[in-house]
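Reposting from the mailing list since nobody answered there.

I have sequence plus structure tokens for a pair of proteins and want to know whether others read the tokens the same way I do. The first protein:
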Amino acid sequence: MTLTFETKKAYSLDEFFTWLKLHGNPDAHYELINGEIVEKDAGGPSGKHGEIILRLGVALVNYAENHGIEGRFFSSAPFVLPKDEADTVQETIGNGSSKFKRIRKGNYLIPDVAFVRPGRIPERFAGAIPAVPDLVAEINSPSDDGLHIQEKIEIYKQAGVRLLWSVYMMEEFVAVYDLVQAKRTFLNPDEELTGGDVLPGFRYKVSELLK
């Protein structure tokens, strides 16, 4: 569901954060997708959605620990993409004078599961995670808009995410995006997710994920 803030059609990060403080529902998660404020899982969270997130997260963490793979995993945690280097400065003219205002542009996304390789993120930080994830998993709900799903895939690609798993839990398949090689593969329940060069050797059957 797309939400509106006054009559504006596109919002900066600062305007988005202001909206959250003034109008955001503390029980809901909101994303900023190409200037649009979008409620994540607008149809309401489902038990199956939560189960899949937990199942996948546990499988990934256990695999990394058992195989000595370092890095940090996150669930439903926010990332700002692209980073602040993409910020712009806007000139404002009033009463014959000029002043400059920094406009923080970007996208605020909350992937269901994310993995960041070591050395790319500080031990401690506040707010959104200050890094681009290497692996992202999105568990798509029936209420998710197809256009926004595709927009987020492109945002992840432009930001530098390497591997994306887009899980369609109701249709029972997974779309795998190798964003480095620009390849897309569809997996049915009899096939396996693999970690590629992000999590070498990781394999997880789709039917196990979606059970």
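The second protein, same order (residues first, tokens after):
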Amino acid sequence: LGDLLGGIDSGFAEVLACVKKRSNVLGKHLVLYAGDHPVEGIAEELDAEGCLRLRLADGTLQTFAAGEVTLRPGGR
């Protein structure tokens, strides 16, 4: 963790690449709670700012800067 946090000084893109590699969420079916509003979809990617991009059932991508995530059984 110290190496990862030290990387913040050298650039967020490098830290973000490391987080993406270690993610247990990307590619998984999940429910994200943004406040009291649940949104279900596939965690597709983290954008350049570190926000989660969620692919919804209708095919659209929605971006979230914060929320509580619950993985769904049987997801990818």
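Reply #1 (J.P.):
I read it the same way you do. The chain has a mean pLDDT of 84.
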